[in-house]
Structure formats: structure tokens, C-alpha cells
Amino acid sequence: MGTAVAEKFITLDEYIEFEKTSASKHEYRNGKLYETAGKRLPHNLISCEILYST
Asked: Which residues in 4-23 are b (16+ Cβ under 10 Å) and which e?
């Protein structure tokens, strides 16, 4: 059996402070952080194409 891990939920203010000094960027959803793909040019170009294609 796997070991249970306690999840720590953070506030929006904690997220903002954390993000200011983080080397990578994260998405904040329902008190949890998810690492994002980053700020690479190909990723940004694809995102813009999707955003403006509709």
C-alpha cells in the first residue's frame, strides 16, 4: 500500500508571495499549486494562436 501524504492547501496571498521568488511558475487552483509549462517561445506562440483563432 502507498503511504498517505497530507495535502497542504495555501491561500491566494501565500501563492502570490511564493510566486514572486519561485524559479518556475505555477498555476493556483483550489488551494493547490501546479507547475506550468513555462515561458518558452513555442509554448507562447501556440497559446496565442489558440486564443486568437476564435
From this structure: eeeeeeeeeeebeeeeeeee
pLDDT tens across 1-50, in order?
454 445 789 999 999 999 888 888 888 888 998 888 666 666 667 777 77
32/30 Cα distance (integer angstroms): 6
Sign, CA torsion 49/53/36/26: positive
The Cα–Cα gap between 25 and 36 comes to 6
For the chain, how long is the longest CA-to-CA vector?
47
